[in-house]
Amino acid sequence: MACVVVVGSQWGDEGKGKVVDLLAERADIVARFQGGNNAGHTVVFSGQTYILHLIPSGIFHQGKLAVLGNGVVVDPEALIEEIDGLAKLGVEVGDNFKVSDEANLIMPYHKAMDRLRESLKGEGKIGTTGRGIGPAYEDKMARSGVRVSDLRRKDERAFCDRLKSIVEEKNVLMRSHFKSDAVFDVSEIFDRYAALYERIAPHLCDTSLLLNQAIDAGQSVLFEGAQGTLLDVDHGTYPFVTSSSTVAGGACTGCGVGPTKITGVLGIVKAYTTRVGEGPLPTELRDDPVGAILQERGQEIGATTGRVRRCGWFDAVVVRESARLNGMSGLAITKLDVLDSLETVKIAVAYRDPEGNEVASLPHHVGTLAELTPIYEELPGWQSSTRGLRDYGRLPAAAQAYLERIAELTGVPLVLVSTGPSREETIVLEELF
Ligand code: GDP
User: Fold this and answer.
1) In whole angstroms, what is the distance from residue 59 CA to residue 92 CA?
2) What domains, with CATH codes, occur in the chain?
């Protein structure tokens, strides 16, 4: 039995989708524990590309169960769209998909406020996807959230009363703060969401109970993280973060599974660094030909937003921090092939502050981080194709040296190397399930 949490170790988009999809073959259940439809996992197999925003990629595997845990925020419209989209592709979404009845819903006012707030911020914008995820988490914490189970017909009256007071407050905010003419109507929202509920209802259950029973029965679970460690609401580069716990601990709260059940934490790491949206990125290669190569070869464009990702060298300080925060037991390095053409490759091993002092760990204040310059170690490039290689021994010696240096600097053993977007293009060094 294995219960492995898979997390992004940088700022997201590390290629978790591919690795989770690959490992899903070996697990019985794949469960998401945080985030909403702001994730964008790209999965490529049999020549087809699928982009999932909400449903765990375990859905592509026969006989596996895909779960959305209580820590996820669900936009029911987006969920149904994704279910229908998968059905069109011939991917069945039935008993193989469960949603926690404790998950909070993204409501129409969350989406409206997300967009209005971001546009009001101008220069200081966070770079959110505008899908209402942040405001939905705010309401969850403020105890003004709506849970999926609130939409059950038998609780209609009590729920409508509660929704009424929530919506009244939102309408005041819309008018006075956001200067918007949009007015939300309780019965309109209720009718719309009640219809959506009917579609989701067959998938609802107590997913904590389900997961714990499965674990007790010896089944293996893969907990799929979205976004990345440096976007964690507590430990990330605040305020340029997402609104949930992206670190491995989030799998416990976001799925109702105790920490003693977790057997391993796999950190997904891109062979270089990218970041979408605002916030500091110490190793960024802005206006630099190498940055352009990484962007182009790595096709660094957001799957959810279509935004171009900022690119930079591998930052060992970031991944070391990430290893500690997640208690990482293994590293999966992706997109090695993107570096194939480079003459040399650099790794940030520490930073230097404006006074010239060396800084070995990641500062927790975003302003301090923005002032640091990376100290690089330069390694020879391999200038030959690693694309599609499946055997570690066939990697060029310089590529092996690069990977091993990353493992050494981060203190986490290497368990998987990805050499291309498709499932087959992978070197597996250690089986996790
Ligand atoms: P995620 O959100 O962490 O799953 O990351 P994304 O799916 O947004 O981004 C990963 C992108 O890189 C996708 O387009 C993948 O198909 C692609 N990808 C994943 N692994 C590799 C790899 O090893 N090499 C290359 N060239 N592309 C990869």
Assistant:
1) 8
2) 3-95+206-428 (3.90.170.10), 104-202 (1.10.300.10)
Catalytic (active site) residue 61: no
Backbone angles phi and psi of 426, in degrees to 5: -145, 140
Instruction: Spot the catalytic one: 28, 41, 114, 139.
Output: 41
Integer-rounded Cα Rg, in Å, for the chain is 22
How confident is residue 307, by pLDDT bands cut at 50, 70 and 90? confident
Which residue of 227, 335, 390, 424 sits with most ligand 1 atoms within 8 Å of its CB, as the best mutation to test the pocket?
Answer: 335
SS3 at position 341: coil
From the alpha carbon of 49, which atom of ligand 1 is closest? 16
**Assigned token pair, 194:** 């009640």
CA 78, 79, 82, 84 torsion-angle sign:
negative
**Gap from CA of 20 to ligand 1 centroid (Å):** 11
Atom of ligand 1 nearest to the CA of 334: 23
Q: Average pLDDT, stretch 164-183? A: 91
Residue nearest to atom 25 of ligand 1 (CA): 420
What's the pLDDT tens digit per position in 222-266? 999 999 999 999 999 898 899 999 999 999 999 999 999 999 999
Tokens 């110490």 appear where?
282
Residue length of the chain: 433
Probe target for ligand 1 pocket from 34, 41, 42, 428, with the most ligand atoms within 8 Å of CB: 42
- Provide the pLDDT confidence category of residue 45 given band limits of 50, 70 and 90: low
Nearest-CA neighbor of 387 among 416, 417, 431?
417
Per DSSP, the three-state class of 266 is: strand
Cα(306) to centroid(ligand 1), Å: 14
* Buried-state track 191-206, b at ≥16 Cβ within 10 A, e below 16: eebeebbeebeebbeb
> Is 235 one of the catalytic residues?
no
Whole-number Å distance, alpha carbon 335 to ligand 1 midpoint, is: 7
